[in-house]
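ok trying this again, last paste got cut off
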Amino acid sequence: MSNTASLRPQAVASEHIPLKPRNVAFDWADTPLHWIPGDPDSTHTINVLHLLLPAGERWFVRVYKQVLPYIRDERLRADVIGFIGQEAMHAQAHDEVLPHLKERGLDPTPYTAQVDWLFEKLLGDRTLPPGRARKWWLLERVATIAAIEHYTAFLGDWVLNADALDAKGADPMMLDLLRWHGAEEVEHRSVAFDLFMHLDGGYRRRVRTWATAFTALVFLWQRGTRFFMENDPSLVDGRASFREFFRAGRQGVLPTAGAMARSIPQYLSRTYHPSQHGSTTQAAAYLAGSPAATAAEARTAGGA
């Protein structure tokens, strides 16, 4: 094998499985605002997912529908179609949490309006002439999605192993939402990267779009946590702080800063492939026992 070939991303073949969307449903009637008891900081840090994901994953779907005609590999095409179905369900499931937050006195609309603008206007379709400019913008967004999916898979793997959330008595309905979603992110963690490599694969584009995606995610996440803490009706002078973030990481109810830092060179390695990180077997095992996923399977089997 040549040195050049050895630097190419190598997929782990055993980690590939066919993808299918699961038509899950959740009931938020009994879920408290602070669903991690006594820990509003960690609760709201994770709650930012409900603000970012609906608009973000609908954007993924729109971009990938435009990409389908360019896919020349039939297995990858099937993976992308499965990815689209799963991401559409993720957007819907997290969207349905927002009315629950509003009923608990925390209206997320001012923040979600900004997120919608980001994905629909700043990262949306542009009026470009057919040809090189239009394809460049499409490839930039494909590469950006691959970078974002690196972090959704990181979070999915983390939440599947976050036993500290169970130990602290986190709400089981919210945990099932997060772990169902996380398991599917682990299931399809290679699709966005494989699509990027199939259509382009340029290392400079990978680094550039990673830097943009990482910076945007950090900015939006800390802004969303501050928004929740400052507008939580049950808190007096609620404020987000890095000290609380580091404390939650040490306790295991949030990812640690060290783990997030180590994820950076992973993605930027020339030999990186998402299948090398996380376990499809673990994801499938969770989905086989998830209350929401098994209920969805039963409804599908019953024709409901």
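PB: full thing came through this time. The first helix runs from residue 3 to 6.
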